[in-house]
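U., I forgot to send this yesterday:
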Amino acid sequence: MGIILYQTGIFIAIQIAAMFGRKSRNTAVILISLFTILQVYTFGLMAFQFLTIWVSYYFAKKWFSNKNPKDDNLNDDELICVRDEDGGRARMYKSEYENMKKEKKNTLQDSDLNKRNEFYDKLKSEQ
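Result:
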């Protein structure tokens, strides 16, 4: 009976850690796994405890995941650091940067404008 209560405590501990986020959940799983390796000496109990840890991790991931299928495209938009033409740095979302590159490419479609920009770029690099 004591073993079942102990496994229930492990399950609850991982679920509580998962309520605080993914990193907390993973930390709890790692610490409980290390405890299992260092303190449990019989193979049967160790296997049972690792099974409990795995099941707890699975349910914690399923129950406390913050991902919604609707928000998948929002989560892919990461914040990146880019340099502008003057050498300064700016932070923007990757999608905004891609849109800015497309707009810049569309405005430079005029061949005379491209030639002029290439001339000034070459002049700037020579100085």
